[in-house]
Amino acid sequence: MFYPSLLWQMPKTGEKTVYLTFDDGPHPLITPKVLEILRRYNAKATFFCIGNNVKKYPNTFELIKKEGHAVGTHTFNHENGWKTATNDYVKSVLDSNALIHSNLFRPPHGKTKHSQLKKLKALNLKTDSQLSTLNSQLKIVAWTVIAYDWDHALSPEQVYQNVVRNAGDGAIITFHDSLKAYNNMISALPRILEYYNNKGYSFKSIH
């Protein structure tokens, strides 16, 4: 926990809730399949989108919102904060958010400099609500558990076990709606939803 100002877990309310998140989309083929699986379990999630992908696939991005999921920005081109100048990094977030309109942000790889965090935390962003455009302070979201669905050295079973062994009430779980993660994610996700559903959990988005 080198970055205590980031949101690593949601408050435990005793209501048995987990928070599914998906990074690196939208993808025109993969994201709709994720949405279909979530729909089966009445599950809401949070999609941290790359600005350039939103620009390329606006219809897929709109579909995420239409189905009642939350969205956040994930920079414009998946920049690694450790290798990017602070002003360039902040500009990437702002350029992405000009398309996404959210107060939620997740740093790609979780790699960001303290100078970048300081500037980002000071931002007041224009965010969309159903009724109006509001100014809101940026909320930087990390995770409790990473599924490692993108790791080709792992099997779908290992991805599944990694999540169910480590995620409980209030956990923020990170998946990826990307080509690299597709095989593991699309196999493990329905089983994970079934597991938590059978234990009486609900699936909510982050706001």
Short characterization:
This protein has helices at residues 30-40, 51-56, 58-66, 86-100, 114-121, 156-166, 182-198, and strands spanning 17-23, 45-49, 70-73, 104-105, 124-128, 133-137, 139-140, 145-146, 172-176, 202-203.
Number of DSSP-assigned strands: 10
- Rounded radius of gyration (Å): 16 Å
Report the portion of residues in β strands. Answer: 15-25%
Principal-axis shape equals globular
Describe the structure.
With 207 residues, the chain is of the alpha/beta class. Helix content is 37%, strand content 19%. It has helices at residues 30-40, 51-56, 58-66, 86-100, 114-121, 156-166, 182-198, and strands at residues 17-23, 45-49, 70-73, 104-105, 124-128, 133-137, 139-140, 145-146, 172-176, 202-203. Strands 1, 2, 3, 8, 9 and 10 form a 6-stranded parallel beta sheet that branches. Strands 4-7 form a two-stranded parallel sheet. The mean pLDDT is 92.
Key features?
six-stranded parallel β-sheet, single chain, 207 residues, two-stranded parallel ribbon, 7 helices, alpha/beta
Give the helix/strand layout:
Elements: E1 17-23, H1 30-40, E2 45-49, H2 51-56, H3 58-66, E3 70-73, H4 86-100, E4 104-105, H5 114-121, E5 124-128, E6 133-137, E7 139-140, E8 145-146, H6 156-166, E9 172-176, H7 182-198, E10 202-203
Parallel strand pairs: 1-2, 1-9, 1-10, 2-3, 4-7, 8-9
Antiparallel strand pairs: 5-6
Helix pairs in contact: 1-7, 4-5, 6-7
